[in-house]
Amino acid sequence: MNRINAERDALTATLTDMLGGIVQSVGIDPAEARPTTGHVAIVIEPPEVTYPTWRAIEIHWTLDLLAGTQTTQAASLDLLTDAIELLAEHGLNIERATPITFNLAGAGNIAAYQVKLNPLELLDQ
């Protein structure tokens, strides 16, 4: 397995552990992200990869945190910000979180945050 895929797998497990009972799913396929009331779904976008020096790799992940349904958007904002705070409290290296509208195919637009991460140290070098 290459380093990018190995780090993505480690990130998936880390996010699931950090968010506990409020996370419904963590994955790379937006079609599988279907948050229900009271839960957050996370879509891991393909990473930006840079090579600052020879053989060194920096992987920059972007997460889309989704919550609620079209009829529960007001309450979903609190759940999204709670999830971001939990991730930060558990030491996830967050660069920034930006509110977005996420279009779920067949379900319409829902509240979301796009969370950009600084390079992580999830794997032994």
Q: What does this protein structure show overall?
A:
27% of the residues lie in helices and 34% in strands. With 125 residues, the protein is an alpha+beta fold. It has a single domain (3-117), classed as 2-Layer Sandwich (STM4215-like), CATH 3.30.2000. The strands form two sheets. Strands 1-2-5-7-6 form a five-stranded mixed sheet, with helices on one face. The two termini are 14 Å apart. The mean pLDDT is 90.
Provide a short characterization of the protein structure.
The chain is of the alpha+beta class and 125 residues long. Helix content is 27%, strand content 34%. The protein has one domain (3-117): STM4215-like.
Topology:
Elements: H1 3-19, E1 23-27, E2 40-44, E3 48-50, E4 58-60, E5 62-67, H2 73-89, E6 94-104, E7 108-117
Parallel strand pairs: 1-2
Antiparallel strand pairs: 2-5, 3-4, 5-7, 6-7
What CATH first level would be assigned?
A: Alpha Beta
Mean pLDDT: 90
Query: Helicity level, as a percent range?
Result: 25-40%
Q: Could you say what the CATH architecture is?
A: 2-Layer Sandwich
**Radius of gyration, Cα only, in angstroms?**
15 Å
Strands side by side in the biggest sheet: 1-2-5-7-6
| CATH fold category name | STM4215-like
Unreliable sequence segments: none
User: What characteristic shape results from the CA principal axes?
Assistant: elongated
Structural class assignment: alpha+beta
How much β-strand is present in the residues? 25-35%
Distance between the termini: 14 Å
